[in-house]
Design goal:
The structure is a single chain. The protein is built from 3 helices and 8 strands. It has helices at about 15-155, 185-195, 205-215, and strands at about 170, 175-180, 195-200, 220-225, 230-235, 260, 270, 275-285. A hairpin with a 6-residue loop joins strand 6 and strand 7. The protein is rod-shaped, with a radius of gyration of 67 Å. Bound molecules: methyl alpha-D-mannopyranoside (MMA) and calcium ion (CA). Calcium ion binds near residues 248, 256, 269, 270 and 271.
Length: about 290
């Protein structure tokens, strides 16, 4: 028998076959382990992230609760402030109302005070008037008394003709012949400073005496300052004698309300009160 040749299929060397398998297995293992590591890393990363997130969540929720607490606190503060503001507003309104009423009371009081002031000034002027009238009456009474005393003394045989120095006696009066430029009112004050008054003339004898003595145009106390045309003596003695120059009084422009005695003739002329005359005659009662 012929031996049939065996066709030997040379199978790949076992070793090669096995080595490849091992490599594959190794590769598989490596891949698997790499996957495993990757997965583990992923899981770990996920876990870590989750942990972090949890922590963050926790702190966020804490923050949120803190913030909401703060918010509530703020809200209550705000409410308290609002109520305080409302109270303050009420107080302000009250104060404003009080201020208003005080102002109205104040204006009422000032009106009342004004009224009182007016009453007071009225009373003052009234009492001043009364005082003036009373003092005038007193002065006149004193003069009357002095005259009566003098007459009595003259009846008893003693004469009342004593005058101060520089004054000249005529009958029961003393006269001072002032010199120096003066307006009517200044002359009046000058006589008062000398404890006398601007002269009043009541008889032709008295006028003649004055004519002899006064050589300058001189102011006398006759005037119509209160009522135009109504001439009165400043001491309010009666106008029982007159010595007007013919044509006078003529109240010439700008108005003549004070009377002068002409130095030349002694006759009277109404003149402008602010004219400056060089003479003025004062009188006072002579003493006994
Ligand atoms: C002056 C003056 C008057 C007076 C007249 C008289 C010019 O004015 O003294 O008072 O009446 O003279 O002529
Ligand atoms: Ca005149």
């Amino acid at each position: 028998m012929e031996e049939r040749p065996y066709i030997v299929f040379e199978s790949p060397p076992r070793k090669r076959c096995c080595r490849q398998g091992t490599w594959l297995t190794l590769l598989g293992l490596v891949t698997a382990s790499m996957w495993a590591v990757l997965l583990t890393l992923l899981i770990l990363w996920h876990w870590d992230t989750a942990q972090n997130l949890k922590q963050l969540e926790g702190s966020a929720s804490q923050n949120v609760s803190q913030v909401s607490k703060d918010l509530e606190g703020h809200k209550s503060d705000q409410m308290a402030q609002k109520s305080q503001a409302a109270q303050l507003l009420k107080k302000l309104e009250k104060i404003q109302a009080e201020q208003k009423s005080m102002k109205s009371r104040e204006s009422e009081q000032s009106r009342y005070l004004d009224g009182l002031g007016a009453d007071l000034s009225n009373l003052k002027s009234k009492s001043l008037n009364e005082r003036r009238v009373a003092s005038d009456s007193l002065e006149r009474l004193q003069e009357e008394v002095a005259k009566l005393r003098m007459e009595l003394k003259m009846l008893n045989g003693s004469a009342c003709n004593t005058c101060p120095e520089k004054w000249v006696n005529f009958q029961s009066k003393c006269y001072y012949f002032g010199e120096g430029s003066r307006m009517w009112l200044q002359a009046k004050y000058a006589c008062e400073d000398l404890h006398g008054r601007l002269v009043s003339i009541h008889s032709s004898e008295e006028q003649n005496f004055l004519n002899r003595r006064a050589k300058k145009d001189s102011w006398i106390s006759l005037q119509d300052l209160d009522i135009e045309g109504k001439f009165i003596w400043s001491d309010e003695s009666p106008v029982d004698y007159s010595n007007w120059r013919p044509g006078e009084p003529n109240n010439q422009d700008p108005g003549e309300n004070c009377v002068m005695m002409l130095g030349s003739s002694g006759q009277w002329n109404d003149a402008f009160c602010r004219s400056q005359l060089d003479g003025w005659v004062c009188e006072q009662l002579a003493t006994c």
